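Researcher: Batch entry, complex prediction.
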Amino acid sequence: MNDSVDEALVVLSGGQDSTTCLYWAIDRFGEDCVSSVTFDYGQRHRIELDCARRIAAEAGVSNVCLPIDTFAALGGDALTDASIAVGEAAGTGTELPATFVAGRNLIFLTFAAAYAYRHDIRHLVTGVAQTDYSGYPDCREETMAALQNAIRLGMDSDVEIHTPLMHRSKKETVELAVRLGALDAMALTHTCYNGQQPPCGRCAACELRAKGFAAAGVPDPLLDAQ
Amino acid sequence: MNDSVDEALVVLSGGQDSTTCLYWAIDRFGEDCVSSVTFDYGQRHRIELDCARRIAAEAGVSNVCLPIDTFAALGGDALTDASIAVGEAAGTGTELPATFVAGRNLIFLTFAAAYAYRHDIRHLVTGVAQTDYSGYPDCREETMAALQNAIRLGMDSDVEIHTPLMHRSKKETVELAVRLGALDAMALTHTCYNGQQPPCGRCAACELRAKGFAAAGVPDPLLDAQ
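Model: C-alpha cells for the complex:
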C-alpha cells in the first residue's frame, strides 16, 4: 500500500448524476484525494464543459478537460464522406449528441483509467446507472465489471471502477445528493436536452429531473437559482 | 445471419505485423469483405499513416484514418501544465511515441469496434502478439479476451477480435506473410524506430525485423526496394 491507492478520479460530465458522484467520492475518499476529468468530445452543448469546471471549483477539486476528436469522426462518417464536415453531422433530437457512438462509456473510462494510471490514482468513479437507462448497454453493471477486468489486464493495474448510482432511481440519487451536501453544486449542473439555461422544462431530460426532485420532496436548486 | 456478419476490419498501423494481418483477413474473409482503419494519434513518425494508406491500396481494400487527439493530451500532460505544448512532449527514445499511454490498444480496438458497429462489421483483426512483446500487457491474449467481452456487453454486439499473430514469433510472422502473398506489401511497411526511410538498420525495431526475415530465410523486400 502506498499513499496513492486511495485517490479517486471522477468522470464529471456537468450533469446531475456525475455531480452527485463527485460528492460521493469526496465523502468516501476526502476532498484532498479527489480530482475530476471532463471529456470535450464535441458535445453539442458546450455549456456542459463550463458546468463541470464550475462544479469542480464549487466542490474544491481539480478538473482536467481532455479532448476526444474521434467521436465526431466516427459519428458523422466525415472521414469517409467528404461531403460531410465533421462539425455538421446532424443532431438526433435526443440527449444523444450527433457524435454519439456505441460504447462511448467504454472509451471515457479507458481514457480516465489511462490518466489515473499515469497519476497513480486507483479509483475511478462514474455516474452510470442501469436503473433509469436500461437501454444503454454501456451503463450496465456487468459491462462495467467486464471493462474493469479488461483495463486491469491491459494496464497491469488494480484500478477499481465505482458506480454509486448503478441501482439508484432518480429519486434516490436526489436523496443521496441531499445527504452528501451536493445541493449547492446541483444549481450549477446542466441537464436540458435543448441546451437551455434556464432549462426548457419540457424535454425528456428536464422532465426526468423534475420527477426525481419531486419524488424526493426537494426543490431543484437549479430552478431556484434562476 | 445477414450479409454483414463476415465482414472484417483490420487495425492497420503501417507496420509489418498489421500488414500481415491485413493479408490474413483477405485470405480468410475475401478482399471484398475487408476494410482497414488507421489511427492518427499524433505518432512521431507520420510516415506510418502514408504507409498504411499505400499498403491498403496495394491490397485493394479501403483505409479510413481516424484521429485521436487524446493521447497527446494524456501523454504530455499538456492540459494540466500550460508550459508544455501538446506537440512538444519529449520523446522516449524507444518505439513508444511521446504520446504513449497505458492500454493504448484498448482504445484502438474500442474505437475500431465502434466504427465496426456502425458499419455492421463483425470481425476485428489486430496484429498484437505476446510472443515478442510480453512486456506489453495490452497485447496479451487474456487482455484481448477481456476486452472482447467488455465491448460485446458495452455495445450489445457479437464482435469478434482476431489476433492471428498472438503466438507467432517474428520468424513465423514472416513465413505467414510469404504464404499469404504479402511480400509486395511488406516493401511498403514502416518499422524503423528512428523513422528513417530507408530504415536505419541499427535500432531495436530494425534489428528485430532483420532477425525475423533472416530466420525465415527470406530477403526483406523493404531493403530490396531501396
